[in-house]
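Example record for the data management plan.
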Amino acid sequence: MEAPLIQPDDYTVPEHGYIGAIPVRNIWLLMLYASDLFRIKGMDGNGIEDMPDDLPDLVGEILAHAVEQRQRRRLSLGYRTRTAALNRVRGRIDVLKTERHQLLSRGLVACRFDELTINTPRNRFVRAALELISRIAARPDVVRRCRRLANDMKMMGVSGTPPTLREISTDRFGRHDVEDQEMVAAAKLAFELAIPTENAGSQKMPLSDRDERWVRKLFERAVGGFFKVVLPPTDWHVRTGGTLAWPTSASTDGISRILPGMRTDIVLDDKVGQRRIVIDTKFNTIVTNGWYREESLRSGYLYQMYAYLRSQEGSGDGYSDDAEGLLLHPAVGTTFDESVIIQGHKIRFMTVDLTANSSAIRAELLRVTPRSECHGLSGKDKIKDDAGQNSGVEWT
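Corresponding structural encoding:
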């Protein structure tokens, strides 16, 4: 039997703490940027972006408001498959069960049928989120409101059994229940906020391998989600998780099976400035020990970005010939922002301080897209940078 996706009783969120060296409130901020709720609420999301410490309370308010709105119009219904012994045929007859239990002799027949119900996985998920947020929220009014709504859903017939991962993953929104999106997005964020954490202390330990992979992926999703909401769609086109094609020729029969693909994290197209920024997020230190120096940029990442940019030249889309690259790393207590032009493509190396407050993190992310900067050179000037030096840089 598949285990439930969530068990609200198992979750607690301390008031202060760290995931590795990153404050929990900033992990919450990344979760907000990566969530559907941030995309739905946009820049007018009740100030949720500006107060990450109060995020559970604010998410609880949004969730409670969305549930109240849906309850006024009645929660969405759905179909579930049931089997029962009935005195009339409904749906399909289960012949094997009918014969095995000799139901016909008692005037019954085993049937399998779909039944309209309010006890859907979506509604059970929302009820479980209300119960969870009532335990992690700090404000008494939010706690009481969420508990009341969870009890109301119970009285309507929504059970307290959490849905399974399979049930949640197969849930789709139709035109008739599009109003559920904000409610479900808030419920998902409520569960993501309930993360395991270390209590605040005098020591800040490194992330475990599992947590590091999770936070690395979260960082990528957060940066992409942030730009999708913050950058106006009339001026910018934001793509996440896209692929690039190699400009191949004279390929042998088996090369397609073994040729590595190129997958970008985030691509920003500036429609006004006719500028493209290819962003690759990393989750380690931006510099490492070099062969002949104490600090050096990671050569593998540079080669990767160089391949992204140079391989797309001449593709004919208008942005690729002088596209820019950005390697974006998180940092703890430090900032780093350096750039170089290599064969006509500006490549930038930048960090975001994840120990700063939310306003500073937002400001650092916005530094990725200043239109005041020159966005590349063309023609004969492509072989030289601003200082007049040859941009074909040799790295050791």
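Summary line stored alongside the record: The longest helix spans residues 209-230.
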